[in-house]
Amino acid sequence: QVSLVESGGGLVQAGGSLRLSCAASGRTFSSYAMGWFRQAPGKEREFVADISMSGLRTNYAASVKGRVTISRDNAKNTVYLQMNSLQPEDTAVYYCAAGRNYGLSFTADYWGQGTQVTVSS
After folding, report:
1. Long-range contacts (CB closer than 8 Å, 24 or more residues apart) made by 99-106
2. pLDDT per residue over 19-72, tens digit each?
């Protein structure tokens, strides 16, 4: 069982930056690939980025590539999402997930409760 708690969301102006964090409980954090997803109002949840267990491989959605960096610290049981050049269309609830990735596919086994990111124009 893995418990995930996101933090770092908030209100930011267009062009600004935010760093989201996701703290995981348990001693098996390094056994999971980690991912970030987001869900905007009225839309389905969508993939943002994921990172392999070792942190050596990352994948990004085309909509955020070049603006977002996912990283992890296995010693701290934490995964991060650094978001730069934020735009109003990035407004969403951002969710952290622990799971498995195979190539470009990520399957979530556990979800966090989400953190709100709002980008004003």
Report:
1. 99/32, 99/33, 99/34, 99/35, 100/32, 100/33, 101/33, 101/35, 101/50, 101/52, 101/57, 101/59, 104/59, 106/33, 106/35, 106/47, 106/50, 106/59
2. 999 999 977 899 999 999 999 999 999 999 999 999 999 999 999 999 999 999
